[in-house]
Amino acid sequence: MSTDTAAAPxxxxxxxxxxxxxxxxxxxxAMLAGHSSPVAQTGYLWIAATREAFAAQLATVQQVLEAxxxxxxxxxxxxxxxxxxxxxxxxxxxxxxxxxxxxxxxxEPVAAAPAPERRGGLPVLRRIDTRPVGFVLxxxxxxxxxxxxxxxxxxxxxxxxxPGGIDPRAKVARLPTGPADLMLRILNRIxxxxxxxxxDLTRQLDHWQAELVDPRSxxxxxxxxxAARQSLAHLSEICEDQQAAMxxxxxxxxxxxxxxxxxxxxxxxxxxxxxxxxxxxIARVLHHVQRLEANAETAVQMHFSVQSHRANDIMRTLTVIxxxxxxxxxIAGVCGMNFEFIPLVHKTDGFWLAMxxxxxxxxxxxxxxxxxxxxxxxx
Length: 379
Description:
two-stranded antiparallel ribbon, 379 residues, eight-stranded mixed sheet, alpha+beta, 11 helices, rod-shaped
């Protein structure tokens, strides 16, 4: 029926978790659907399926839920779980809770070689996978529907089952105490997966800022800039939806009656602590995404400020040159008048006297403007 080692990746995996161990159930959904009484007499079940496997075996999944929990999923909730673009939200019935949670993680690599990326953009934004993960929470069963590949599911399953996962000496204390605790731990891994992208996002945005601020560069990728700003705004909306969904679920959890038994009371309190900690992690991710969005906007404003300052420097230099040559043009214009009697016109050294006066005036004006720092080059 079970094994204590991690199995090969499969579109649908079933785990039985109790206070002592984690076992992967063999036989699939057909074995669970054939039991008229719940299999998880002690502990609970975790059914983790990809979205394609859930759609292909929906009827069997409904039979399993009816046999193990006494109720099947509502049709609208089934449509939510099958929706690949569903925003994060929380819903519930009298028998189960539904939580859809969009993730921010690196998209799984594709076999084909990626197309060359244009320099100066934020290509990492195009590699973020924002597809939702659906959770259906019963009292003794957790159903999770993952995007194709199930990277989050297989990673956490390997942590539970593999010898390199949870320390066997602390395994009893660190195993999830129930379906809600298991869901929160998976959600915590989903949120923390964004931290792997944070360094790449920050580094690429810093490079982009340097390119925008550099006065010698000619930034032309305005379409990439607009797409990056829109992507960051979209990520911010996703984080806000995550925060709202978790807050709704936490509010519903806090309205439940407080258990009286010490063990159950401790589990309830630890569940509240873990939920609040997850909300704090989501808030950190949201803060970072909003800071990146603000940095992108600041980079654009700095770019236009640099260009404006550069244009001001050019106009100041041209103004100084015009101011230097204006008296020289005046002298040349006066000397070129068609009058018969003009001083210095009939003298042999008149030309050189005029040139000396023009050179002296130009030198005085240049020295004056240099002293006023009108000709100073901006760094």
